[in-house]
């Protein structure tokens, strides 16, 4: 239900519920990261340190396309409530964990329900707002997500030092209860004619079976395993084969496919998926390797290097709401996408030129450029896709954009980690230690490769065909069925 069909009070509560759900799913990751050294020490589980994050990330990425489809089928309200309730239970289990394997399992469960929230939060905005307000609110929400990356680590440190690392998880419970109350009050319940028999179970099984080994294989390559190692090859090849099976199920067998691949015939969906992937690729690579640039090349302390990520996050946080408003004001908004990807590429090229004597001005300038680019690209990708597809598929389309953002993280770290290991390995074979100049050269190649990769997103943005930001209320007739004229118009848009 959109703005024309909901009260101002209901819209306010729905927005609060969505914002709290986003807070749970986004702040949680950065807060937990700050507490992980203490957790590993208390639970004597340093060997499983990385898998606490891996289990969450893999589960969240895998469930996003599934949850988006379920939201379209059964309505946003029940799916959000299930996601919130499950996330609270998983958070409590994380806080109560007595061993590291228990924590890894509980974080995987939290990732499943966190993915459910991420798949439906931005779709809910399409349900309750008109296009102009929807695009602006998405900018606000992405800005809030950027803010969470800034406040998350210090907040996690404060909670861990003053209470206990367990409260990093327990604090989610009161926030989640408030979110559940707001969703119950504000989000309208839309009766659905779908039943559990309509769920594409074959698609769910083959998608999960294909994605999980690929994501784990990519994680292993970023953790020091060679791409040609037997375990990595087995995971990647096996996963790829199962994804082929998933495609065949979706295109030849499924009556109600989990991922309607016909969506990608739309210029807007395909271009924005590429933009979403490579903007997230750049964000992950920057967030992971810039602290190493500061510490290993510029000699900045570990404590101070963490704060130097703030320029990128502030750029994202401040630019996202502005970008949302600009999209509704500019009929030729493709220029925003081109500018965003160009800014990211420029920032990465600047980072590739940083050396031991460069000072902090260059990397800070680069971080601002990258943050501004991401702050435009993220809300733009979501808004354009939501206006390009039929209302009955808006959850699938929105979750696809979110999926490509999330999958970019492990892909980025795997590729860039391999480049880093290769360059340092060559230096070691030549008898050189990991000095500041050697590390600067390796990171220079890494950021240059990242810039080249993001250049694919820049080229893709040039081919975007602008369409009007459509009011989602026009996607259905008063009787609740798709309006024939609107469907014909959407078909023409997709073919364009």
Automatic annotation (TrEMBL):
Biased composition (Polar residues): 485-496
Native species: Nonomuraea cavernae
Membrane-spanning residues: 12-36, 48-67, 79-98, 104-125, 137-155, 167-189, 201-220, 232-249, 269-290, 302-323, 335-355, 361-385, 406-426, 446-464
Record's protein name: MFS transporter
Chain residue ranges for the region called Disordered: 473-496
GO molecular function: transmembrane transporter activity
PANTHER family: COMD, MAJOR FACILITATOR SUPERFAMILY
Chain ranges of the Major facilitator superfamily (MFS) profile domain: 14-469
Subcellular location: Cell membrane
A GO cellular-component term linked to this record: plasma membrane
SUPFAM superfamilies, per database record: MFS general substrate transporter
Stretches of the chain forming a coiled coil according to its record: none
Keywords: Membrane, Transmembrane, Transmembrane helix
Lipid bilayer topology: Multi-pass membrane protein
UniProt xrefs under InterPro entries: MFS, MFS_dom, MFS_trans_sf
